[in-house]
Amino acid sequence: MLVLVGYASEHGSTRGIAERVALVLAETGIAAEARPVADVGDAGVYDAFVLGSAVHANAWLPDASRFVGRNRALLTERPVWLFSVGLARVVGGWFEAHSPEPREVSRWREELRPREHRTFAGALLKEHLPGAGRLAYRMMHGRYGDFRNWPEIDDWAQDIARSLPAGTRTTGTRTAGPARPADHGRRAS
Predict the structure, then answer these.
(1) Which helix (H) or strand (E) segment is 59 a member of?
(2) Model confidence pTM above 0.70
(3) Residue 116 to residue 53: CA distance in whole angstroms
(4) How many CA atoms lie within 13 A of 140 on its CB side?
């Protein structure tokens, strides 16, 4: 079994989460490949999908939405997990409690029937926002930094690994980059 951990990322936060999920899956013996969805040619080579996107204005990035649109029929036949990365969990309070899930995800719940959708906090640096965006973010009491919760992400990836059918373990893995992605907050054991 080969799992695509596909992503659309603007500043690298979502990419880091996707790489971490692929790494955890590989550590459990599941062949997993993290790659930008815009770079995926034949999605039919994958047996399961973990798809994620940064969220801007309550929507997934266009590359991720296009990937799902192009592969809708295939995605309805295979196991799919979705994750969104945004600021609602960083800002917290009212903003987190009242932020709906991305528009596409609501629609895809019916069409694709994903096993699960998770929302993770991302990373945000001041230079990621234009001047007006910085002002609005300050008014929401937003903070800058890396807010990814790596233990939460690891646990979710392990849940995905346990959910895959028996007999999916393999001794080899495929990666779309270095064998081990950047540390992403992992502590050495």
Answers:
(1) strand 59-60
(2) yes
(3) 14
(4) 19
Beta bridge partners of 52: 7, 83
CATH code of the region 2-163: 3.40.50.360
> Per-residue pLDDT tens for 52-104?
999 988 899 999 999 999 999 999 999 999 999 987 666 555 555 556 778 88
Whether the Cβ atoms of residue 49 and residue 84 lie closer than 8 Å to each other: no
Q: Left (φ > 0), alpha (ψ -120 to 50) or beta: where does 93 sit? A: left
Nearest-angstrom CA–CA distance, 105 and 53: 11
DSSP notation for 83-129: EEEESHHHH-HHHHHHPPPPHHHHHHHHHT--SEEEEEE-EE-GGGS
Helix 62-70, helix 103-111: angle, nearest 10: 10
- The three state secondary structure string of 127-181 is HHCCHHHHHHHHHCCCCCEECCCHHHHHHHHHHHHHHCCCCCCCCCCCCCCCCCC
Would you say 20 and 157 are in contact if contact means Cβ atoms under 8 Å apart? yes
Smallest CA-to-CA distance from 90 within 147, 11, 26 is with: 147
Torsion of the alpha carbons at 158, 163, 166 and 167, rounded to the nearest 10: -60
Q: Is 27 helix (H, G, I), strand (E, B) or coil?
A: helix
Regions of the chain where pLDDT drops below 70: 88-99, 125-130, 133-135, 137-142, 166-189
Nearest to 146 by CA among 9, 18, 13: 13
